[in-house]
Amino acid sequence: MALRAVSALTWGLGGPGVGPLRSGTFLRCATQHRLEKMPSSIGFPEASRRPFSSHRILVDVDQSHGVATMKLKNPPVNSLSLELLTEFVISWEKLENDKSCRGVILTSNSPKIFSAGLDITDMYGKNAAHYAEFWKAVQEVWLKLYTSNMVVIAAINGSSPAGGCLMSLASDYRIMADNPKYTIGLNETLLGIVAPFWFKDNLVNTIGNRASEHALQRGLLFPPADALKIGLVDQIVPEDKVQSTALSVMSEWLKIPDHARQLTKTMMRKPTADRLLKQREADIQNFVSFISKDSIQKSLHMYLKFLKEREK
Ligand SMILES: CC/C=C\C/C=C\C/C=C\C=C\CC(=O)SCCNC(=O)CCNC(=O)[C@H](O)C(C)(C)COP(=O)(O)OP(=O)(O)OC[C@H]1O[C@@H](n2cnc3c(N)ncnc32)[C@H](O)[C@@H]1OP(=O)(O)O
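A: This is the predicted complex of the input protein with LSE3YFK7.
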């Protein structure tokens, strides 16, 4: 198997914003519309579209089908900066509160990069208060995605290292562009940092313990075909078919009654989400003390230098 690495290196019913069942779920299910036919592209008819956006997040809601497409837009590499994470949470809550929205396709506005992961500049050369705020936002985005009532499909239209991979892992289904230049994986060790337990839990739940041990320790980044083999993604498709495939997979998922699917998702994911929720503050303090260490700051500095100076 060809493995590539960049060288050098709420649950709790009613919990704020992350509860598994929105009020009215059962009522809505009884009257919900089934998706019989989905459009093959994002070109939804004007009348049923309700786009909204912020600086770094573009959202297009197809109200007649109950599906939103959310695009990350943070050039040049869609890094998950504090600003992007904050805007993500605001947009996500808007969708969660929109009763017509049952599914979200998460993708990137950039053609070659889904997301370069957490913004390293948010973890380098800042003060403890900044690191704490940043990490809380990272936790929040993961909790929102992982515990969402909506069907979440990641349309991975480019490389997806580290935090980018985590966002995909938190989705219900992953479709990746079949381009061997793209990679996906949790490569934290290559930066001299350690994936926290909840990144690890999400990976283990997806690809199993042995494959996770191997992938995490070596910081492996997998090309699409290998990611498919180990179950890191569910489907690979030609680059120009990622969005249309996501829409048709979404239509299949939305045929399942919401309440049954949501309760099943809760049953599967609650223990993992609860583990973070129970020690959220301690996890923030762990991150702050880890990332503030001179040795870790030095590793991040070297990695940023490597990224800037490497041959393209
Ligand atoms: C005991 C444990 C206790 C607690 C837990 C503690 C710690 C856990 C902590 C953190 C977990 C972090 C997870 C992460 O997500 S870390 C981020 C990892 N990301 C990567 O390694 C990806 C790096 N980037 C790339 O590989 C490539 O940029 C690319 C494949 C995404 C795109 O390649 P391109 O050739 O198209 O673009 P580049 O020229 O490389 O980049 C352009 C530009 O962007 C800068 N950049 C790239 N990635 C990042 C990033 N993640 N953050 C900030 N900036 C980034 C790159 O340096 C270039 O900048 P310049 O234009 O040269 O200035």
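The two ends are 24 Å apart (CA to CA). The chain has one domain: 39-307.
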